[in-house]
Amino acid sequence: MKNSMTKDRRIHEKLLKYIIEVTFLDKDVIKDDTLLFEEGIFDSMGLLFLIDFIRDTFHIDTKDNELLVENFASVNSIAAFISKRIGFEESKKLVISDK
Fold first, then answer.
1. For the segment 31-40, what is each residue's pLDDT rounded down to a tens digit?
2. Which residue intervals of 24-67 are DSSP H helices?
3. What is the mean pLDDT of residues 83-98?
4. d(CA 77, CA 16)
């Protein structure tokens, strides 16, 4: 459980650092629940760059059916999406290695 929490924290920190770097906003402006698109912090191009960041950093290919507001609304929701996908990918590897 502790390892999972540590991994989730690292995901969150990497994501937040990326968002702060690409938006040039002060770290106090971006909160965990800041609505990134609704507040104009990201636009459609920002989403494309974010998806590239997720792919390059976490080795996750975001599928079209995953491009939902609830997956990309805030730092918390994006981090949860990444954690869920990493967990899914790891569970697939365990199933494959058990065979």
1. 999 999 999 9
2. 44-58
3. 68
4. 12
